[in-house]
Specification:
This protein has about 300 residues and is mainly β. Helices cover about 0% and strands about 50% of the residues. The chain starts with a strand and ends with a strand.
């Protein structure tokens, strides 16, 4: 396990740059869920275990009507540009939602291109992620939060994106519900991230809670497509027992330059006893069509 030493950073997302790694996340250094920012750190060279520093450039231009709850930024390179998918609470809609911002540099500044939330304005939506399918169609997969569903159970949702990533070109569809998971007993559907295995199986990492323990689980698409039937794996990928220390979640996968794949999570999630979130990387491997931690 690699401990980055970056504390008070949730939802850590790694992007490989030309001569460094970038680490984006929800910066909670101001001390509260509302007082957050989209943070960006970079490594000193291509060394995951070395020194990380917060970037000095302006990472993003604050979107109009973005009031608070700047959560879960991801940055993806697509068609030569960099796109940040992130969540915020809008003073215009009175809801959290996902938006897309664009920059020509992974260090920003990222500028919103979706004219506000791209997700339904009447929903609470968070934790959007990006995927391009085998036909070249870009998608956003995102959380339809339990706070605004008809039964208080969170859903995972998806919609097709325009090629310029400025708007949806399909209606959002439900992929699965929080209570579909065998390894959790709460209503949240946090932290989605898609990955295709070497054998072509489409996986989704996502987080939920078992009692007071935050976890990362895996679902897989039965037909290998975003809009297919999603099946929940019996066992979670990351738990407190697997981490060996604390709980944690909101995972994503990346492959380092040496070919080793890692799971990036914040840990712990339960901050009792004066603990603070830290971005950590755990080595993982493909196994039996899924992902498992290398213990």
């Amino acid at each position: 396990m690699i401990e980055t030493g970056i504390f008070k950073l949730r939802d850590p997302f790694v992007l490989a740059g030309e001569d460094c790694y970038y680490l984006y996340g929800t910066d909670v250094s101001e001390g509260g869920w509302n007082d957050t920012a989209w943070g960006c750190y970079k490594s000193e060279g291509k060394n995951l275990s070395g020194k990380w520093e917060k970037t000095k450039n302006l990472v993003y231009i604050r979107p109009e009507n973005a009031e608070k709850q700047f959560w879960a930024p991801e940055v993806h390179k697509f068609n030569g540009s960099y796109y940040m998918i992130a969540s915020y609470y809008s003073s215009l809609t009175g809801h959290r939602g996902c938006s897309i911002l664009k920059s020509e540099s992974p260090e920003g500044p990222f500028v919103e291109i979706t004219n506000g939330h791209i997700t339904p304005k009447e929903w609470d939506s968070i934790d959007g992620t990006f995927w391009v399918d085998d036909e070249g169609q870009p998608w956003m997969v995102f959380v339809h939060e339990w706070t605004c569903t008809d039964d208080g159970i969170g859903r995972m949702a998806a919609a097709k994106l325009s090629l310029d990533l400025t708007h949806f070109i399909s209606e959002p569809m439900e992929l699965f519900r929080a209570d579909d998971a065998h390894w959790a007993n709460k209503q949240v559907t946090d932290g989605c991230f898609l990955y295709k295995t070497s054998e072509g199986r489409l996986l989704m990492l996502w987080s939920n809670t078992y009692n007071d323990e935050y976890r990362v689980g895996i679902a897989y698409s039965k037909n290998g497509k975003v809009d297919g039937e999603w099946i929940q794996a019996e066992e979670p990928l990351f738990t407190k027992a697997i981490g060996g220390k604390y709980d944690g979640g909101h995972g994503m996968l990346f492959t380092a330059d040496d070919g080793q794949m890692y799971l990036s999570v914040h840990s712990p999630n339960n901050l009792a006893g004066g603990l603070s979130e830290e971005a950590i990387f755990l080595p993982v491997k493909e196994k039996d069509g899924l992902i498992s931690c290398i213990l």
